[in-house]
Specification:
Structural class of chain B: alpha/beta
Low-confidence stretches of chain B: none
Distance between the termini of chain B: 22 Å
Oligomer: heterodimer
Number of helices of chain B: 10
Largest sheet of chain B: 6 strands, mixed
Number of helices of chain A: 11
Mean pLDDT of chain A: 92
Largest sheet of chain A: none
Radius of gyration of chain A: 18 Å
Chain lengths: ~250, ~325
């Protein structure tokens, strides 16, 4: 096993503690359960419309960010708080490898947990309508949005113990407030990167049901979302490398 | 030409004019010294700056001024050097959910050891932790955690071993075993730096001592020289008795007593030989029919010894 694999595996495992998975699992299943209860006897079109509502109002703007931010901010920040980070930093491993492996571990954990919600919502829609057209968009959208949040919150969690609080305020005030009313700001909203991939993978008839505030000025499309995600990953790996290389561990 | 006792002829670790301040607080002030093969004790009371110095030495924090070189480079600037450094940090932090085996194997894997499983097994055997190796570290006592940390620091066979209060929390038997391990590693030609605030502990591990107080170099060199310097320190002992004046007069006749002062309910006796005063006192007290209720050295702490040594260096 290489050092990078060992750090990634160890990070993902430590972030996915039993109680945490149980708690986040319940949060992930919540939207799907509410959807099932509210869409039991509705038409296919209405069920799809409701599934999109759940994606736009609950899953992408609330569940995905919360899970990814909480998990990722503990990847380096948790080790700093627990004083175990010196163990890792005193090993002959390139700082960029440590940064990339930590982010990879956090991304794996966030994607794994958010996949529960994606499968649950996509599955619940499939049960209700008999069509699995939302499953892949949910999976891809959730994976990309989780990756972006996780990548940002690994270095941010290392910088401050209040990363999650600041993140929640950012999501509530900026992403779900400012960016929803000012379309030009939507491109600065991480969950909209995932949502643009989600929208881009929807059938043409379904994508028309997506309200304009959900995407703002962001173009629907999985390719563009993937490029943005890779760019965020590269930037955050560079930032994290700089931090572990230059920041004192007092 | 004689070498300053703070330095060794062929250093593996060199500290040159290092200062570290946190805000307005100076933690380490203009320390210059070096370490070479063998065990060196870094001695100083709690809060003296030992941990800060060791953390700078290993690259965890950067010096505000001065430079540090381990085998020619500062580790943070060249992480490959960590292949030859092992650190046992002072804090009691380990990955609580990991077993001792997994923890030491993880250290071996990150240090690119060829066979992590075998190396971990060997390291755990050295610290006598093999029988508990499959237990989670969270359930370990403080002493067992210390031993697991020592095993993780040893697993990649480093040439420089930095141990920050490694005997904290260990029982006397384990302490003796670990001291034996550290001495052996030193005898094998490794540079072993062990910090402690207990002089006797350092004395058992090392022949050479670097003493730190208030972030400054207080004393350096051979442990026997430090002991000799300490022998000149006048100790003050508080003695409480029901016959103060009579006992004071009788004590002044004892050759180890430098002076006696009557204070409050007792006496303050000055001596250079604490042990002999303790031995003489019962007989002296009997001779004047005095009953001694308290015999307490007032300033025999390591800190006061260091303060004395610092004054001597200035």
């Amino acid at each position: 096993m290489t050092a990078a694999t060992a750090i990634t595996t160890r990070t993902a495992r430590s972030l996915l503690g039993f109680r945490r998975v149980l708690l986040f699992g319940a949060l992930e299943l919540g939207p799907a359960l509410i959807f099932l209860l509210s869409s039991a006897r509705v038409t296919t079109a209405l069920a799809t419309e409701r599934a999109l509502d759940f994606a736009i109002t609950l899953y992408f703007p609330i569940v995905v960010p919360i899970v990814a931010m909480v998990l990722a901010s503990g990847a380096l920040g948790g080790e700093r708080r627990d004083s175990t980070l010196s163990f890792l930093l005193l090993k002959p491993v390139n700082r960029s490898t440590i940064a990339a492996a930590k982010i990879a571990g956090a991304v794996l954990a966030a994607v794994a947990v958010n996949t529960i919600g994606a499968v649950a919502l996509g599955g619940a829609h499939a049960i209700t309508t008999g069509s699995s057209e939302l499953l892949l968009p949910f999976l891809v959208g959730a994976a990309l949005a989780s990756t972006v949040y996780a990548a940002i919150f690994v270095p941010f969690g290392f910088l401050t113990d209040r990363a999650v609080v600041v993140g929640l305020i950012f999501v509530a005030v900026f992403e779900n407030g400012v960016a929803a009313t000012l379309p030009g700001m939507a491109s600065l909203s991480p969950w909209r990167i995932g949502f643009s991939a989600f929208a881009g993978l929807l059938p043409a008839t379904t994508v028309q049901l997506v309200p304009s505030f959900a995407l703002g000025n962001v173009t629907a499309g999985a390719g563009g979302a993937l490029i943005k995600t890779v760019a965020v990953l590269a930037l955050t790996i560079a930032a994290t490398t700089w931090l572990v290389r230059h920041r004192d561990l007092t | 030409m004689t070498l300053d006792p703070a330095f060794v002829p062929e250093p593996t670790v060199a500290i040159d004019g290092v200062t570290k301040w946190f805000g307005t607080k100076v933690a380490v002030s203009d320390v210059s010294c070096s370490f070479g093969p063998g065990v060196t004790g870094l001695l100083g009371p709690n809060g003296a700056g030992k941990t800060t110095l060791l953390r700078m030495l290993t690259g965890l924090i950067s010096p505000s001024e001065g430079s540090i070189a381990v085998k020619g480079d500062w580790p943070r600037a060249k992480p490959a050097i960590y292949r030859d450094i092992g650190l046992v940090p002072e804090e009691n932090a380990v990955y609580a959910e990991m077993t001792a085996t997994a923890y030491v194997r993880y250290a071996a894997t990150l240090s690119r050891v060829a066979n992590p499983a075998a190396a971990a097994d060997r390291a755990l055997a050295i610290v006598d932790l093999r029988s508990e190796a499959d237990r989670a570290l969270g359930g370990f006592s403080k002493g067992m955690r210390q031993r697991a940390k020592v095993a993780a620091a040893l697993v990649h066979d480093p040439g420089v071993l930095v141990l920050d209060e490694p005997l904290n929390g260990t029982d006397p038997i384990q302490r003796a075993k670990l001291i034996e391990v550290f001495r052996r590693l030193g005898d094998e030609g490794r540079t072993v730096i062990v910090s402690s605030h207990v002089l006797e502990e350092v004395e058992r591990m090392s022949d050479r001592v670097i003493a730190i107080l208030d972030g400054k170099l207080a004393a350096a060199g051979d442990i026997t020289a430090i002991r000799a310097a300490m022998a000149d320190i006048p100790y003050r002992v508080r003695v409480e008795t029901d016959h103060r004046r009579e006992l004071a007069a009788a004590l002044l006749k004892d050759s180890v007593v430098h002076g006696v002062r009557i204070a409050d309910s007792g006496l303050v006796v000055e001596t250079e030989d604490l042990a002999r005063l303790g031995a003489d006192l019962p007989g002296v007290a009997r001779s004047v029919d005095a009953r001694v209720t308290v015999f307490r050295p007032e300033d025999a702490s390591l800190e006061s010894v260091f303060r004395y040594l610092v004054r001597g260096r200035r």
